[in-house]
Amino acid sequence: MSYEITKQEYGNDVYFTVRWSPLIKADRHVINSQVPAVAGIVELYFQDTHGKMNLYAIVRSYYGGLRATLRSATDPELEKDERRRTILLLHEEKIFFRYSCIES
Fold first, then answer.
1. Torsion angle of alpha carbons 5, 6, 8, 9, nearest 10°?
2. Phi and psi (nearest 5°) for 100?
């Protein structure tokens, strides 16, 4: 299945459909092997102690692609935002993501 954003135009109205990938546990090997290096959007989640998935970031990627964006967004040493870095450190083994590609 293709995980991408599609656009449909009806007169002056435009409708977008986002087909998300399933939630995937963030692991650099999985990111390198399964995530395409194209433009898109990513949602990042952490799983709390009750098993609830909590959305903590929505990230856009352009030139570097989804793969490069995810690698830096899921690595505490590369993450620049202090709040996100704290979440990554506190929930290191329970970070998940899903993505959708955008045709450019």
1. 70
2. -145, 140
Q: What are the residue ranges spanned by the domains of the chain?
A: 20-101
pLDDT digits (tens, 9 = 90+) for 27-86: 989 999 999 999 999 999 999 989 999 999 999 998 779 999 999 888 888 888 888 888
Q: Which tokens in the block code for residue 104?
A: 């450019």
Under the banding of pLDDT at 50, 70 and 90, the label for residue 89 is confident
Beta strands, E only, 48-87? 53-61
Rounded Cα gap, residues 59 and 51, in angstroms: 23
Block residue for tokens 């045709």: 103
